Every structure is written in structure tokens, then in C-alpha cells.
């Protein structure tokens, strides 16, 4: 299979990016895509987020169906709106974006407070576009508590409408979005399918710096992977990694029989802010049937 370059699709067009989301696999999508089989019956992405890999797979038309899943209901609501009523979502975002002019911080705080009451998907899209580093953050009560980036207004509505409509064009007709625990989706996968997972990283989902609305129980996750392996379901997992010489989290256990690669993901934003020049390297685990000696991108 010929790999894509950058974040372009099968005809050289840039892949759409309708949900600004820290941790998106946009920059790595082409290299991950090059490791996938030429034909997949159903492509599952149970930790959907910005769905960068589903969009990449859809651009190559290698899957008959795509299933997006996430336990964060308003995020799934964004994806359902993209699939079912993209123009309405774009219009709702425009209204929220334009209402901020001249009172940006106050408006952000008001939208955030309303979202924490009604969990409106369009409000979440606005918050993600405006918040610091496009990084979702939730407190212990499940409320969105990330601050705004006061240096910018977020993605312009014209641009976001183009991204929303482009994503809808790629996915409509063969994609579903479901509020679901990842294990529920994994139980449906067969050896003819492929599961891609990008779960919350251990360093940001556990302990005092927990940022996601739901953490990752590593033992439960490993057991679920063991079930996939026992059933012969192909899988690819993006999972932690390292920045410079510092490792983030534990590696997946060798008993799963997965092949681990390292993908250079660019310079660490956090390290740059601290005056350091360090590369981020992400771990990618493959089912052995997907791994080939001539594939993968080693870390520098």
C-alpha cells in the first residue's frame, strides 16, 4: 500500500479536521494508515475524539463501514450532527462564535456554564475551538473546566463549516456514531474488521492531573485487548510514549503478543514552552498479522 504524505487524502486533498482536539492523530494518520490492510469490513474507533483515523480510512475507501464510539455523549453528539445535520451544526457554531465579539472571556464562561448544565454538543465544539491548546479538561464532577485561550477567538465559522461539510461528505452513508463504552464495541468486532484505539494516555487520565471525563483502567483495557487477540480481531493501539528521555506510562504487556513501533510525532509543545527542544515519540502497537519487517516508522 502506498502511504499518504502529511495529512492529505487519497487524491492529495487535505483531510478535514472538524473537531479541534489536542492529541489528534492527524500528523500520524498517514503513517498509521500505511500499516492497515487494503480491505476492512468495519473500521472501529472506540475512543473517537477527533476521529482522525476514521477520516483517513474513509478517504482511502478501504472499509465498508465505520463505527465511531466514545463515552463522552456531547462529543458523539457532534459527530452525529456532522453525519445527520452538518449545516445546522455549522450555523449553531457560527452563532456562538459571533456572539463572543467584544466580550470574549465573559461569553466563554457563560457558554461553559451552560454546557455543564445541558451538555449541548455545539457548545462543546465552541469550547474546544476556544480553549487552551484545544485540550479537553473535566473536573471530578464531570464538568468542563478548561480555560479559554485569550490570544485567539477560535476557528473562524467559515473555515469550520468547510471542515464540517468535508467530513460529512466523507462519512455519510456508511458511518455511525455511538455513545458506548469501548468494550461494548470491541465485542462486536470480527476478524474481518479492524479496531483502532487511541485511549486516554496514562499521564493525563490518572492521579492528580486527570483531565478526561473518564480515566483508563489499565488492567481492564489489557483484558479487553486479550479478548480481541483471542478472537483474532486485528487491532492497532496508539498508547503513550516518551518525550526526550522521559517515558510516559507503562508499556502494554508482552503477553498480548503485539508488535510495538515508535513513531516520531514532532516537537513537544510543552517542552518548547519550558525552553527545551525535545521530540515526542508515540508508541504504536500492532496485531502481529499487521506487522511487517519493512513497515513502520522508527523513532529518530
In terms of topology, how is this protein built?
Elements: H1 29-33, E1 40-45, H2 52-60, E2 63-70, H3 73-84, H4 86-98, H5 104-118, H6 121-130, H7 157-171, E3 175-179, H8 182-186, E4 194-197, H9 202-205, H10 218-230, E5 235-243, E6 246-248, E7 259-267, H11 269-273, E8 279-286
Parallel strand pairs: 1-2, 1-4, 2-3, 4-5
Antiparallel strand pairs: 5-6, 5-8, 7-8
Helix pairs in contact: 3-4, 3-6, 4-6, 4-7, 5-6
| CATH level-1 class of the largest domain | Alpha Beta
Number of helices: 11
Q: Span from first to last CA? A: 23 Å
What name is given to the CATH topology of the largest domain? Rossmann fold
Most strands sheet: 8 strands, mixed
Query: In total, how many beta strands?
Result: 8
Mean pLDDT: 85
Amino acid at each position: 500500500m502506498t502511504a499518504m504524505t502529511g495529512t492529505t487524502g487519497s487524491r492529495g486533498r487535505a483531510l478535514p479536521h472538524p473537531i479541534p482536539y489536542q492529541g489528534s492523530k492527524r500528523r500520524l494518520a498517514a503513517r498509521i494508515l500505511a500499516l492497515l490492510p487494503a480491505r476492512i469490513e468495519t473500521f472501529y474507533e472506540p475512543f473517537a475524539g477527533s476521529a482522525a483515523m476514521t477520516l483517513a480510512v474513509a478517504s482511502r475507501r478501504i472499509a465498508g463501514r465505520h463505527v465511531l464510539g466514545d463515552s463522552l455523549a456531547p462529543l458523539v453528539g457532534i459527530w452525529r450532527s456532522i453525519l445527520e445535520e452538518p449545516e445546522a451544526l455549522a450555523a449553531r457554531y457560527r452563532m456562538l462564535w459571533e456572539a463572543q465579539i467584544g466580550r470574549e472571556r465573559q461569553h466563554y464562561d457563560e457558554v461553559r456554564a451552560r454546557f455543564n448544565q445541558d451538555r449541548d454538543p455545539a457548545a462543546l465544539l465552541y469550547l474546544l475551538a476556544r480553549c487552551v491548546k484545544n485540550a479537553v479538561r473535566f473536573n471530578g464532577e464531570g464538568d468542563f473546566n478548561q480555560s479559554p485561550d485569550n490570544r485567539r477567538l477560535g476557528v473562524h465559522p467559515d473555515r469550520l463549516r468547510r471542515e464540517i461539510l468535508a467530513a460529512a461528505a466523507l462519512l455519510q452513508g456508511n458511518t455511525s456514531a455511538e455513545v458506548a463504552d469501548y468494550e461494548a464495541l470491541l465485542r462486536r468486532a470480527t476478524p474481518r474488521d479492524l479496531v483502532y484505539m487511541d485511549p486516554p494516555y496514562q499521564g493525563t487520565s490518572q492521579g492528580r492531573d486527570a483531565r478526561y471525563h473518564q480515566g483508563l483502567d489499565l488492567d481492564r483495557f489489557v483484558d479487553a485487548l486479550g479478548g480481541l487477540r483471542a478472537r483474532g480481531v486485528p487491532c492497532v493501539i496508539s498508547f503513550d510514549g516518551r518525550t526526550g528521555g522521559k517515558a510516559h506510562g507503562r508499556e502494554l504487556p508482552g503477553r498480548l503478543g503485539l508488535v510495538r513501533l515508535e513513531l516520531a510525532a514532532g516537537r513537544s509543545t510543552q517542552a518548547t514552552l519550558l525552553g527545551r527542544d525535545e521530540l515526542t515519540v508515540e508508541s504504536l502497537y500492532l496485531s502481529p498479522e499487521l506487522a511487517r519487517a519493512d513497515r513502520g516508522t522508527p523513532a529518530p
